[in-house]
Write a structure and sequence with these properties.
Layout (H helix, E strand, L loop, with lengths): L4 E6 L1 H6 L1 H12 L6 H11 L6 E7 L2 E10 L5 H12 L5 H7 L2 E9 L8 H10 L6 E7 L7 H8 L3 E7 L8 E7 L9
Parallel strand pairs: 4-5
Antiparallel strand pairs: 1-2, 2-3, 3-4, 5-7, 6-7
Helix pairs in contact: 2-3
């Protein structure tokens, strides 16, 4: 039997209906406690109402093995307030940074199930997610890891993402994050 990978855009109704399955991918991929499931489902459904909302999933023989979604950045969003705080703290924002935070697509979530990571699924989802976006940049955050030695950093760097903030702590989270950005549209680059 041949295994068939499909990267599929989801309509907002499809996303909200399937949010429990999609959140399960997130919880498994991140190693989070299942106790956050109901809260995350509600948050993801709320996020689907943001302007510019776009979502994709990766299906492997009809099994969901990946999910990614995002929406237009907005001065009204908590996340942009956090970005601006971080940029001020490091002495900015510079003119270039200000232009980025005024015109970006926020990649809110990108997750691939363990066992399927490192096989190009995240890359394919990112290209589909960011295809035809009407913003000049995409921005995302990812937990810091020593020497960027994980699949997530490898993916983002291969797509051309560069540092906007490093070792940044979002309010209410004790972990350090890298905030990365890239100009849109994505350019096809060779993988390592």
């Amino acid at each position: 039997m041949k295994v068939s990978l499909l990267i599929r855009r989801l309509s907002i109704p499809e996303f909200t209906t399937n949010a429990p399955v999609l959140v399960d991918v997130y919880i498994t991929a991140m190693g989070y406690s299942p106790t956050i499931r109901d809260t995350r489902i509600a948050v993801w459904r709320r996020n689907s109402q943001n302007p510019g909302f776009t979502s994709v999933c990766a299906l492997l023989d009809d099994q969901v093995v990946g999910v990614a979604y995002g929406f237009y950045g907005s001065p009204d969003h908590w996340w942009q307030h956090q970005l601006r705080r971080g940029l001020r703290h490091k002495g900015g924002p510079t003119t270039a940074e200000l232009e980025i935070v005024q015109n970006y697509f926020e990649v809110a979530e990108v997750h691939v199930m363990p066992g399927f990571q490192g096989h190009g699924i995240g890359r394919k989802m990112m290209f589909e997610l960011l295809r035809e976006q009407q913003r000049a940049h995409a921005i995302l955050s990812t937990p810091e890891v020593d020497q960027e030695s994980n699949n997530a950093f490898g993916l983002y760097r291969s797509l051309g993402f560069y540092d906007l903030l490093r070792s940044f702590r979002f309010d209410g989270d004790l972990r350090d994050f890298a905030v990365l950005t890239v100009e849109l549209p994505l350019k096809e680059t060779k993988t390592h």
